[in-house]
Each structure stands twice: as C-alpha cells, then as structure tokens.
Amino acid sequence: PRSTLFPYTTLFRSERCVIKPPLHPDDQETLRNIRVILAGNRIIRQLKQKDITAQSGLGDTVVSSIERGDIGPLRLQNLCKYAAVFDLAVKVSFSDLELDVPTSTPELDSLQALSDAAPYNGLWLEALVIAFLRHTRVQLHVPIEVLAPRLGLNADTLSRWENASVDPHLTRMMAYARQLGGIMRLELVTP
What we know:
Blueprint lengths: L1 H12 L11 H21 L3 H8 L3 H9 L7 H9 L4 E7 L10 H12 L4 H18 L4 H7 L4 H8 L7 H10 L3 E7 L2
Antiparallel strand pairs: 1-2
C-alpha cells in the first residue's frame, strides 16, 4: 500500500540526508573560542540556562546546543541574541577574498547601515552576510550549480538560501566563504 512507502520515500528525498562537508579546523576553533568566551561570561554572571533563555528570547533547545558546542544548526542571529545577554555583539569580517570589483552595492550599503545601527540585532547582520556572499559568488562567476554540491546542498536549496527563504546555518556560511577562497571571521566585541 502507498501509506507504507511514505516514510521511506520521504526519508530518501529529504535534504537532511545530504552529508555536509566538514567545517574547516580553523572555523571550528573560532566557534569553540566564542563558545568558551560566552561560557566564561555566564559563569562570571552566575546565570542559569533559564536566565539566558528569558533574556535572549531563544528557546531552551537553542541555548542548550550553543552551550554544548553543537554548532551544526546554529544561526548567526541566534548567536548574536545569546551574546547580547552579555552586552556583546558578533562582528563578522571576511579575508582572502580577491575581488576585481568593488564590494559596495546599494543593497550591501543599506544592510550595513541597518546592522551598524542595531549591533545586537543579528537579523540584519545575517542578511548582510548572505547578501555579501551572494554578491561575491556572482562577482567571481561561480555558478550556483557548482557551489551547491560542495556545500552539501542542491542548487535550488542554495538559491533559496541566498534569497533568504531558507534559514542559513552559520557553519554553511563559513563553508560558503571557504569555497569562494575566503575566510569568514567572527569575533565578540563590545559595541
């Protein structure tokens, strides 16, 4: 019967079955260092998980995964919300990207202004990073069909990710930058 096949066919078509490329060791170290700094702040302020959940607006599962170091499904904006509890903002920069054209566009300038105006709001920062990565890919003439498999995605999913209709994971953003020959750097700063 058709109903017996449903779970199996769904499983094999699911994008979650796609094997993700491993995160570069330097990127793993960066995320580990950020987690250590946040854990140290939590200890110093003697906050419990429920305090962080209440102050950040994040769910228990997200807070637990950040604290355990389970950064696989972590979004940049969630990391920003967690850091904001300690009056810290996440700063993102890129290095080693060799572009022959300026990286300033009206879209990027507008998103940069919004991000600068609200340093604790990770939504604008996340949108800026995605727009920058998409702009860089286009300027470097890297077809989406070539990049997607390297990130463990299909071209349609990466396209939706670039257009903000699919939630981007921080690790995929970092891997995306690496595939373009660059490094996405993260640091915690006091705005």
